[in-house]
Amino acid sequence: MYRSNFEPGSTRWAVRRSQWRSMGIREEDMDKPKIAIINTSNKLSSCYVHLDDVCALVHQAIRDAGALPFEVRTVAPSDFVTSAGKKARYLMPTRDLMVNEVECMMEGAVLDGMICLSSCDKTTPAHLMAAARLNVPTLLLTCGYQIGGTCSNEKFENQFFDIDDVYEQIGALATRTITLKDLTDMTDVAIQSPGVCAGLGTANSMHIVAEALGMTLPGNSPIWASGRRLRDYAQAAGTQIVELVKHGVNARQIITEDAIRNAVMMVLAVGGSVNTVRHLAAIATEAELPINVIALYEEYGKIIKLLTAVRPNGPFRTEDLEAAGGTPAVMRQLEKYLHLDALTVTRQTVGENIRDAKVKNNNVIRSLDTPISQRPGVGILRGNLAPNGSIVKLSAVPGERQSFSGPANIYEGEDEAIAALGEGKIHQGDVIVLRNMGPAGGPGTVFACSFVAALNGAGIAEHVAVVTDGELSGLNRGIIVGQLMPESAAGGPLAVVAQGETINIDFTNLTINMDVPEDEIQRRLANWKAQELELGGGDNTYLLQYAQLVQPIEQGAVLGKRKVHAG
Question: Contact 475/464 with Cβ under 8 angstroms?
Fold first, then answer.
């Protein structure tokens, strides 16, 4: 008997039966397993516009497999649309709002399992967090990437652009390297299909993470959102979630410490987003796993090298990675390090899933003996500026630069920094500090990534560094250190750096320090007071609630006090 099948004659049975019979649900379907399709479809963003069609395929496949599907919709943030208001403060809070929405619908309605249609940056981690928290049979279907197009105006004759290019060219406009018409022409062609941003930003990185965790069907990432393969995967996933429910395979049987380790290794090998650290920490927290995810990045960073160079890490595009064999092919290259006996949603192990995977292009996916770089894709830096760690995308640091030192040029927000860029107040050699932008200080992790992209568009990203506790994009490239821990608003040392003080970043020894004696740092911190939150207009109730509940990035910035595991 499934948990959704209540005792006949009970109040719960009677009122729910009345509702469902009125909806046309047949008598013979009443005792079937009941499966939620968590659909993040909306019409605000190209990330989601195709999900209703995908949902219909999944819905039919579930019915054909002998279960009763119910579509459940949740909030669905887009990093390039939902970021428009309140300085992007709503992006991170919507991740956790989504987790809570899934919990309310799954546990309130007492459904037997769920298949999650995952797309933009925050949806995939939210779905994985919900699966880990609820521990019900769960399968993720990652719903693919978009492609760019060709611009043929006077300045950009037949030049290819995607959303990442548009993002960076904001800086070129600010420094008058291009015109508003040039930027407008780019925006007209940059997105030619539904799906998430091309390149190894956070969305595609988390799609790969979901597969590495064993929570998607093998080969689901990356996948073109408008291709036949996604439709095939939708049907197969709908069938497979019914199998998971019937056999009682719950999420925590799959999301284990070994699975988290496999996912970390994949991020390092493909040069995934820096935000994977925060999201994997949150997934581990929700699963109540006694592991320190940040320490895992440090541990495996000593042995895993960069095996592919998909933008922003190099010249290849997401479609090249898909054509070369995708996630299974990269995992096959890592086979000797992976935990091959980890269970997956196929009800087979990782080893069984990747046994026949092949690399179809050795230039796109390298072997362990011929890596793109001797460094991993992501590194954890520690020092007196980040005692609990900070994160750098080593694969996106230009020229595999070994170090950077310069005077701190401090701004309390991205808009202020972008204005300074246009006014010529940012100079080569500067270390730009963007602070009080973390989960608690924002609140909600304020955007720093638009400024970083603007530096690239302005042509000076190789000559300055950025240090921040704000939100970075996985598409950012340059000398960027993010998610400094503790964040400024929690009394982290970044809060007491003074204008002009030297900051030293060492990518070889993985350190980040300000050139200030330790006793002086401690004196400043003892006298430091947190800034009052300035949210601008109205009560902003959810943001205030978020600020009061959010936990440190080290725990994945989850909401509410949790068990803290040493490791």
Answer: no
